[in-house]
Amino acid sequence: MGQIKLNQVTKSFGDVQVIPPLDLTIEEGEFAVFVGPSGCGKSTLLRLIAGLEDVTTGHIEIDGRDVTNVQPAQRGLAMVFQSYALYPHMSVRKNIAFPLRMAGMDEAEQKKRVERAASVLNLTDYLDRRPGQLSGGQRQRVAIGRAIVREPAAFLFDEPLSNLDAALRHGMRMEIGELHQSLATTMIYVTHDQVEAMTMADKIVVLRAGVIEQVGSPLELYRSPRNLFVAGFIGSPTMNLIEGAEAQKHGAATIGVRPEHIATGDPETSPWSGTVGLSEHLGSDTFLHVHDTGLTESITVRADGEVPLRHGDKVGLTPIADRIHKFDAQGLRIE
Amino acid sequence: MATKASTSAARLMMAPAVTLLLGWMLVPLTMTLYFSFADYRPLRGVFEPWIGFDNYARFTSSGSFWDAIWATLIMVGAILAITVTLGILLALLLDKPIFGQGVVRILVIAPFFVMPTVSALVWKNMMMDPVNGVLSHVFRFFGATPFDWLTQAPLTSIILIVSWQWLPFATLILLTAIQSLDGEQLEAAEMDGAPPLKRFWFIILPHLARAITIVILIQTIFLLGIFAEIFVTTQGSFGTRTLTYLVFQRVLESQNVGLGSAGGIIAVILANIVAIFLMRAVGKNLDA
Question: N or C: which end of chain B has fewer CB within 10 A?
Answer without folding.
Answer: N
